[in-house]
Amino acid sequence: MSFSPSPVGLMDSRSVQEQREKWQRKKTRTAREMVQTEQKYCDELQLVNTYFVEILKAKGTLRQDIRESIFSTVTSIYSVNQSLLVRLEKGEFGRGFDDFCPHLHYYVTYVDNIQNASKVLALQVKKNKAFRRFKKLQESRPEFHCCKLEDLLLLPLQRIQQYKHFLRDLTENTGPHSPDFQQLSRSVEAVSEVAQRIQDNARSHDNQLQLRRVQKLLKGTKAKVIVPGRWYLREGWLRAVPPKGAEAKPKMFFLFSDVLLQAKHCNRLHPTNGDKFAGQRFYPLRDCTVEKVFGHTKSQGGLLSLTFPKAKLLLMSSNQEDIDDWYRSLSSAVCQLKSRNTVIHQRDPLVRRPLRSNQDDSTPTPSTHNNTTTPGRKRMAPPPPQTPASTTSRTPAETLSSASKRVKLSEGPEESAPAGSSCVIL
């Protein structure tokens, strides 16, 4: 008797084989593209290193500190990527990136310095005539293909993003039992961290630009917008409804991660402040409650109610989409601020400091005055000794005047610190 394989088994084995061949084709295509782009990337890094870094170092056109501020670790990056290219051309992708990732700190340093490098480069182009002529001459070489130095300095940041996508494709199309799989997986995590750092730095830089722009829009220095940890969210015109039923007036509102700033337009006929705004109030969002009074359906606009501990604000708009966007932005900002404060103020009851140390419990300190003190309370310092001369030399009139001064000072009310959640009128 002869046994022939069933048609179902043949189809299953054929589908598995076809899937493996499909993965292999994708992996081969990704590997080929990575090698080609790596060769081009190394050639462009060589242009920067040869025609700028080395020549500027030999000629002394720029001081060493200025040169390092502009080019940072680009020479080290070029050296590391040359070694990586040798591995990739041999097809050793897993081993190549496993050796490459420990040197990613050069990229981290370069990423953190890129904004400062752009500023220093722009300043030198503006003020250093010799460097400006040198830069123009080097960029006119045929090897640069009309590329500017500013564009070439951004290549390491762009390459990290490309590495992340290439490595993900290679990992997805590599079998888990392959010797390269673990190495590629580790490389994906390491490169993704640097890519995330690039995005965070770019987002932080854009936020600083927005804060500076808003600060320039405001008249005077009372409304201080640039504060560490503050993020710009949005801005726009809304009608503020007064509490006594007067006519709603349009106001400009700037929403940040921690406050809402209300401002009004300055007099347009003013010679210097005609295009600026005057800050009126800061509304802290920490204890704010946002509600929709109406505008839940697609009607003509809506009304938002913002409740603060010491103030209430009604905002109105005739644009339904605009009022919905403001509601989402305000609710999200308040929610994130409250959740962040909740995490900060969490306290573990199991790790409290003892009221007294073990040494204090075992060896009590003898008191010179034989007074018993309650644990946990601060001891009052003994009053300074008064000499008889000091009491006898004062006349009764001086004694009465000093006593009256002490009475007047003690009768004044104590100033309390302003609450952090109350609105600030500018």
UniProtKB/TrEMBL annotation:
Cellular component terms per the entry's GO annotation: plasma membrane
Entry-linked InterPro entries: ARHGEF39 (IPR042987), DBL_dom_sf (IPR035899), DH_dom (IPR000219), PH-like_dom_sf (IPR011993), PH_domain (IPR001849)
Domain DH, chain residue ranges per copy: 26-201
A molecular function (GO) term: guanyl-nucleotide exchange factor activity
Domain (PH) ranges: 231-335
GO process terms (BP): positive regulation of cell migration
Pfam families membership: RhoGEF
Region (Disordered): 1-29, 345-426
Biased segments, Low complexity type: 362-375, 388-399
Name assigned to this protein: Rho guanine nucleotide exchange factor (GEF) 39
